[in-house]
Amino acid sequence: MLLVRSVVYVKLQRPTSKVHWLIFVDCYTPRMQVAYLKMHGTGNKILVVDQRSDNQSPPGIEQLRRLGDEATGPGFDQLMWVTRATEPDNAAGYRVFNADGSEVEQCGNGVRCVARLLTGFSMKATSLMLESPAGLVEARVLDNGQVAVGMGRPEFEPSRIPFIAEARALHYELTVSGQRLDIQAVSMGNPHCVLEVADLASADIDRLGPLIERHERFPAGANVGFMKRLDRGNIELRVHERGVGETLACGTGACAAVVCGQQRDLLDDEVRVRLPGGQLVVSWRRNTVWLTGNAELISEGCMDL
Q1: pLDDT of residue 15
Q2: Contacts with 190 (C-beta within 8 Å, 6 or more apart), sequence order
Q3: What are the catalytic residues?
Q4: Nearest-angstrom CA–CA distance, 116 and 233
Q5: CA distances from 168 to 143, 181, 215, 246 (A)
């Protein structure tokens, strides 16, 4: 319940003076309580709200921002709003919101958390189909609790990323604040820019991340991955996420970095991706990109909407 204090002004006029009274009236405005699970996938904070039964609409932008901030809400990097499936063979649908209130197309770490919720955190291997903004997604819960997610095929055509370029190329030159960068661009259901760096500790992520995210050649914005190759089967990665900033992990960012490296014949079909929040495994054999990692419960609670 939300307590609202109303101020009522009453004016009493007399021949020689004016008297103003203030009367405070307390009233209650009902609010909807919604249950949530706070989870993480490789350190990426995910809030999962199951609305298959209530079928409520998600919060607005300002409310999402308050909920996403740990000072005013449960806090999250992404919120997964789980909905009823439109087809009977599918387990559920979902929408994805960033902490800044923006709605985005996909979240690989969030999908794993949704799959764990839908299977009741069972350790029994199972497979389910989910309806995402980017299309159908298959999730396979493994008997060790890890979840493998079929992230679809990468899209390198600039107009479909979207990325402004005269023609498709293996890599592009991007000028950022007077600095020329060699980048790759790809969509994993959402737009990504990938840069290879020699050292992640000294990479200028705090400055370059926001500048590339909002660069005019990425009209829908971009997630920005800074990748260091260790060998053909291992990379290290830090990601500045669109609408969030740098996070401990980004599932689609891991996929984007691996497929970009594979396009240049620098990486094998299966690659272990080390992120600040832990490890993911990405495999691509020129069909569906598979992302495998954990999905862990942190806490559960209710929030007022």
Answers
A1: 40
A2: 104, 105, 106, 134, 223, 242, 252
A3: 107, 250
A4: 27
A5: 41, 17, 18, 28
**Residue that has been written with the tokens 């999250």 in this structure:** 76
The whole-number pLDDT of residue 24 equals 38
Positions in the chain short of pLDDT 70: 1-31
18 assigned to some structural domain: no
Long-range contacts of 23-32 (CB under 8 A, 24+ apart): 28/1, 28/2, 28/3, 28/4, 29/1, 29/2, 29/4, 30/1, 30/2, 31/1, 31/2, 31/304, 31/305, 32/56, 32/304, 32/305
Note whether residue 27 is domain-resident. Answer: no
Q: Determine, yes or no, domain membership for 6.
A: no
User: What CATH number does residue 171 fall under?
Assistant: 3.10.310.10
